[in-house]
Amino acid sequence: MKRADIPQAKRRTGIAFFLALGATILLGACAGGAGKSSSGGAKDSTLVIAMLGDADYLNPVIGSSVTSGNISGLIYPGLLQSEFDTTTGLLNFMALEKKLRPSSGGRKPDGALARTWIMSPDQRSITYILRSDVFWDDGKPVVSGDFKFTYRLYGNPVIASPRQQYLAELAGAERGAVDFDRAIETPDDTTLIFRFFKPVPEHLALFHTSLTPLPAHIWKEVRPEDFRSSPLNQKPVGAGPYRLQTWAKQQELVLASNRKSNLPKPGNIPLVNWRIVPDYTVRLAQLQTNAVDIVENIKPEDFGSLVKANPAVEIKSVGLRVYDYVGWSNIDQELYHKTGRIAPHQLFGSPVVRRALTMAIDREAIIDGYLKEYGTVCNTDISPSLKWAYNSSVVAHPFDPVRASKLLRQQGWLPGPDGILQKNGRKFSFVLYTNAGNARRNYASVIIQQNLKAIGIDCRLDVQESNVFFENLQNRKLDAWMAGWSIGLEIDPLDVWGSDLKKSTFNFVGYRNPRIDELCELAKQKLVQTEARPYWLEYQGIIHQDQPVTFLYWIRETQGFNKRIQGEQLNISGTFYNIDDWTLSPSANLAP
Amino acid sequence: MLTYIFKRLLLSVPLIFGVLTLTFFIIRLAPGDPAAFFIQPGISPNVAEQIRAQYGLNDPLPVQYVKWLGNVLHGDFGRSFSRAQQPVFEVIAEALPVTMTIAGLTLIANFTFGIIIGIVSAVRQNSFLDRFLTVTALFFYSMPEFWFALMMIIVFALKLQIFPASGLNEIGAESFGPIGFFLDRIWHLVLPVTVLSINGAAGIARYVRGSMLEVIRQDYIRTARAKGLPENVVIFRHALRNALLPVITLMGSSLPFIFSGALFIEVIFAFPGMGRVTVEAIFARDYPLIIANTFISGTLIVLGNLLADVFYAVADPRIRL
What we know:
The structure holds two protein chains of two kinds.
Chain A: H1 5-43, E1 46-51, H2 66-75, E2 81-85, E3 90-94, E4 114-119, E5 125-130, H3 144-155, H4 180-183, E6 184-185, E7 191-195, H5 202-209, H6 216-219, E8 242-248, E9 252-257, E10 271-276, H7 280-288, E11 294-295, H8 303-309, E12 313-328, H9 333-339, H10 351-360, H11 363-371, E13 375-377, H12 401-410, E14 414-415, E15 421-423, E16 426-427, E17 429-435, H13 439-454, E18 458-464, H14 466-474, E19 480-486, H15 494-497, H16 514-525, H17 533-546, E20 549-562, E21 565-566, E22 583-584
Parallel strand pairs in A: 1-10, 1-11, 17-18, 17-19
Antiparallel strand pairs in A: 2-3, 4-5, 5-7, 6-7, 8-9, 9-10, 11-20, 12-19, 12-20, 13-20, 14-15, 15-16, 21-22
Helix pairs in contact in A: 10-12, 11-13, 16-17
Chain B: H1 2-29, H2 46-55, H3 61-73, H4 88-123, H5 128-141, H6 145-159, H7 177-216, H8 219-226, H9 231-243, H10 245-268, H11 274-283, H12 287-315
């Protein structure tokens, strides 16, 4: 190569590069067009759901994330079909030929594997009669032995199933380990008997014995210690309306309608694609451009612009299952850690002070400013959706700073020279902690800070990384914090308010009231669920009066749906409750 | 030179090992619990304890360290806590190609644009073009990448709808055929690579401009011009070669930057790459995965630096390794 050639060669490469870049962009644009039109075709048969995170295990024994639960529910057979009755707030269980209560939703119980059940008169055993026409994907029949086999897995400490407490009433559990030979009996392939060590209410028996089975013939060779790492977890064999087609970890998980399923039938939509999109803004953008059909947990501040930018999107809401609260440590945590002695907290130890704090906080302002019609003031941890147990006569503590100041004065808290309340030389001053990355709590915490300042309380705000924050909560290291709970559909609040602080690991505030312990026990002993209502009414009255925490608001969870989805019935028990009945209407995509 | 490379490689073993040991202790001393997810109402309190026992987290720290050491020396970095007990290197084997693609493309784009802009600015020093390029470069250089990425998504994915907002491929891309699939992949990579490279290119352009200006003023350039060589030859043959020397070191040291940049680019654009694996592993306190990631990125950084030194020697015969 001659010397003079070099620069020209360089220049040529430069030009070639620009040309290549131009071509790429052009191709990109073309591919964009092509991608869109062809994806339109593929999308007519595919429902696309954007998810924050991937499923962990597609295995009902060890799957622990909500996504895993949603997907497993579509792949595996269910013994019973459950239904949340919105008129009463009770959970209903249905077999093919029997219902716990009359059904309100009108959904046929075709998805249940059990034909019927018989509860023994002493309520110490339940016998299921199974259908004989249900088959696993590999053609083998689903039999009662599959349940017995899987329940052993649920109860195996080496496997560490997050659902092992469902086995708490089975025979042998009272002595520490379930005696499976006695507790579960399978006289033949279609008869399944569960035995309890004590009388169990029917609804609880149904709830706890309807865990999802695995195919025993496939899993029986897997040793418990290899259970979590078994490759079988990647290729679930089920019998439900969908089966797993592909799973590209951290990218997408595709379910295909299971043509052979009769539980209740193959899913209507041929393909369901769960895409993992970790960033909220991007999920929102994708919903707006019709790239995905469903995005969960849309923030209220985005509703307006989203629906305006894409009229094909609608916001659907379900609730009320989630509430936020401000936790006030009831006891002196430091003293408790050091000596195990329990003494009231210097600032928040008195119920009167806690009531005053609740009155000082303008909960309506937080709802109006952030949640709007998707929030309701919260009085106790029993949701208004659980109508059968909800106490509607409990009236919310009003926003009344004057009254709050008066109550605090009665308790000896008087303004000091700097305007901050003082008692025995101790200032009413504390740090309110919350976890990072929650816009709603950030918004609320600023209002709370202002409200408290107005009555002479110095509240500083601090945000901690979620993992650190929850560890501090568990170790009862914080005096005041803001967090939330998502409640179960069965009322069981002893974990959160029980007086035995060692046992009640979620009683972060250290609240203790023996009557609450008593009421929870009494309610549990009732063999007919609705007969526990009087106990729950009294419970709410006491919690409201004691204000172990300041209950802020119930939140309706808000999901963005493309209108091309039809037949969806959102429900407190889940967004994807009847997904196998949904259909896609391609013409709805053409809306302006 | 081979002896030098061998020596450097030998030295890097204790270095990487030290980094891993430090990481091992730091993540275990940091607050947070890998089993924290299982501590919630409705889940039996035994589960968290059983999970900890499975992970071997109940042993005292020195015992854990010795066990870990034994495994690592056998090449076993363990199984991920948070990703369904997948062996960590399997997780990384899935993620690394994605990040390598992005990093490779970014590196090429970075240096191509950076060098071109730098040369133009230097040769036309103080012209309108130079000022314009300088201001533009500084503008992009000072822009936070995550914000820039979101803006690009809003403009190109939301408003203009030319490029996709996330993912590696379109839904149903498998049916496009191999060429269609490839084009679809490229189409998905345009936005993230642009975001990552604009920022880097701006920085490199400033370097190249600076070093080019210095070189152009040297005597031998004047000599080259005086003996009547065409300006192109002077700039590309005589000036550029010398001006690029400091830029070569940049290449090695920019590797870690591109990796760290890929961190949030992958989260924002939903790419299942190393960055996302690392971020999620940290939030989940997935110790084996965090350590394996540190191992991979640490090794890449050490190799990147070594490569830069070797390139340096190749490009400049005055340097003897």
